[in-house]
Amino acid sequence: MSRTPFFSGANLSLVDVAYAPLLMRFKLIEALHSGEILEGLPRLQVWSNQLASLDSVQKSVVPEFADLYVGAIKKSSGYMSKLLT
């Protein structure tokens, strides 16, 4: 990754669009659990923040997405559900 706002340069690309949902979910988990998933990866953190700040990324999910996502994690009874309770 270069030092540009997006993966392939100054413009949003398919790589950015493909990773935005994953990085959005990382941010939700980080907000609910102490510790950063992308700790020690400063360029990845910058890229993630850049994508998260885009209006198109924020509007790509329903307004209640965070509650639905966390609810699904808690229902799963998996490793993450134990961290979020």
Structural description of this entry:
This protein starts with 13 loop residues before the first helix and ends with a helix. The mean pLDDT is 90. With 85 residues, it is an all-alpha fold. The chain has one domain. It has 5 helices and no strands.
Structure at a glance:
By secondary structure, this protein is mainly α.
Q: Pick out the low-confidence regions.
A: none
Total number of strands? 0
- As a percent range, the share of helical residues equals 55-70%
How would you characterize the largest beta sheet?
none
Shape: globular
What's the rounded overall pLDDT mean? 90
Indicate the radius of gyration in whole angstroms: 14 Å
Total number of distinct structural domains: 1
Strand content: under 5%
Alpha-beta classification: mainly alpha
> What does the oligomeric state look like here?
single chain
Encode the helix/strand succession as letters. HHHHH
Total count of helical runs of at least 4 residues:
5
* CA-CA gap between termini: 35 Å
Key structural traits:
mainly alpha, 85 residues
List the helices and strands and how they pair.
Layout: H1 14-32, H2 42-52, H3 55-58, H4 65-76, H5 79-83
